[in-house]
Design goal:
CATH superfamily: Histidine kinase-like ATPase, C-terminal domain
Distance between the termini: 31 Å
Strand content: 15-25%
CATH class: Alpha Beta
Order of helices and strands: EHHEEHHEE
Number of domains: 1
Number of strands: 5
Strand order of the largest sheet: 1-2-3-5-4
Largest sheet: 5 strands, antiparallel
Helix content: 25-40%
CATH topology: Heat Shock Protein 90
Number of helices: 4
Shape: globular
CATH architecture: 2-Layer Sandwich
Structural class: alpha+beta
């Protein structure tokens, strides 16, 4: 499994949390609420809050629907890691499901491996649109790690890298 937490970044974290839950669709709403509560101290705008919640929702849904092929098994787990570095939120959603054979193709808008479930193929596109940065790492048979970053507040994204 790909490392969820990049060890080199641990020193700059002002707050972090880890959570693991069953890969069932009911937990998508749970993950949204957890991340909303976690970023509350940053005083996000309603738009920032909605963006983060939507991106987390899409990532968790992808893990359940695609990573675990919608088995809804309590044995299958989704991991969520969140960290705050100054005013930048990092969210990592990981599964140990079937993985993605071609990440570049999977990230194309309207591409879906589950058309029979009326999936729109817009999950990664929404994550990219609502977050400042998106990274997807996956290996067939070894799961997927989705890493997203969102700057919360008024200063620019570039300023936060200093």
């Amino acid at each position: 499994m790909i490392e969820i937490i990049e060890k080199k970044d641990v020193k700059t974290v002002s707050n972090e949390m880890r959570l693991e839950f069953a890969a069932i669709s009911d937990n998508e709403a749970f993950a949204r609420m957890v991340v909303a509560a976690f970023i509350a101290p940053l005083n996000p705008t309603l738009e920032e809050l909605a963006d983060v919640k939507t991106a987390v929702s899409e990532a968790v849904t992808n893990a359940v629907i695609h990573g675990y092929e919608n088995r809804c098994s309590r044995e299958d787990k989704v991991s969520m890691y969140c960290a705050i570095r100054k005013d930048v939120l990092e969210v990592v959603i990981a599964d140990q499901g079937i993985g993605i054979e071609n990440v570049k193709r999977a990230m194309e808008p309207l591409y879906t491996t589950r058309p029979e479930l009326d999936r729109s193929g817009m999950g990664f596109a929404f994550m990219e649109a609502f977050m400042d940065e998106l990274q997807v790492h996956s290996e067939p048979g070894d799961g997927t790690v989705v890493r997203m970053y969102k700057k919360i507040g008024l200063s620019s994204w570039i300023d936060s890298e200093e």
